[in-house]
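Reply to dn_fold:

You asked what the input looked like. This is it:
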Amino acid sequence: MRWPRGGDLAAAIELAEVLIGLDVYREPSYVLLMQLHALQGHSAGVEAAYTRCADALRAEFGIRPGPQTEQAYERITEELRRRWSLRPQRPGVRFAESGRGTIAYTALGSGARALVICTGFVSNIEIALEYPQLRACLDALAERFQVVLFDRSGLGLSERLLAASTPDALAADITAVMDHAGLARAWMFGSSEGSLGTMRLAVECPDRVQGLCLFGALARGSASADYPWALPAAAYDVWLNRLIAAWGGPVGLETFAPGQQDDPALRAWWARLVRHSASPGGLATILGGLRDADLRADLARIRAPTLVMHRRGDRAVRFEAGEHLARTIPGAAWLPLEGADHFWWCGESEAVIEAVLRFASP
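and this is what came back:
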């Protein structure tokens, strides 16, 4: 049986629960619920649905679930075990020393060229690799690159320092990781505010940066009279306070991944990633650096080959911010994309992967 993803799957689970509520002894409703939980990879949900069925039948009639229900349960649990056995191996985590403490990083693939991934303010490299959709996108890049992921200072497995994540600090983190990994040069994939560190590195250490691939990127963290494509500082602070108040749950998915915001599996994983990225207090300090960042004066000094990608409906970073980068960075290639997801690995991610592989080809 095939079911749609996202909000339709969530609605199907709700429907199965309604059917069970109408007749708690109807076994096919429990089988349906087990199938839906299995599609999410939730073995605990499958077990709970079967147990509820068995308990209801035993309490009322003193019987076990029928052969069809038992066979469905065994078939579903066996399929889940098979899926778990086929999961890609988790790469090891290494730690680079920097002036602000240790930086956790990991690598996928063994290509001759390196691609350093520099993402936004939610990061834990171990938990990030657990989400199949993201892992599949990274594995696609790892077919051609040695893909390096890291947790910037203050986030995830790296040193939990209460200091703003400025472009300079982020560039220093990247340099520390490259030094420890023995990478003289690398391509940079900078998404969201992670792009600020990659652009600063391209200006300050041009010999270390082979090229830039920017997605959902921006040059300034808050609006000014001559940069209207961001939140004003006061509105930024309101947004940050709301984010902190909801920290620990699936915060911001309506902005970061509107196309999948109702997907139960994504919501559960994202909430877990959020909790293991930073504390609310640490988040406030880190994001203070984004609000005050302004790299506009650096853009004309970038000499590395640069690809700028941006989705037209991006709700987190306005499309015009990407257009501004593309027309200001000398010789930048501009690739407007359809869609509204700010996460590069959501939506039409194939277009992003193909563009990076094509642009960064030798």
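The first strand starts at residue 94 and ends at 98.
Hope that clears it up.
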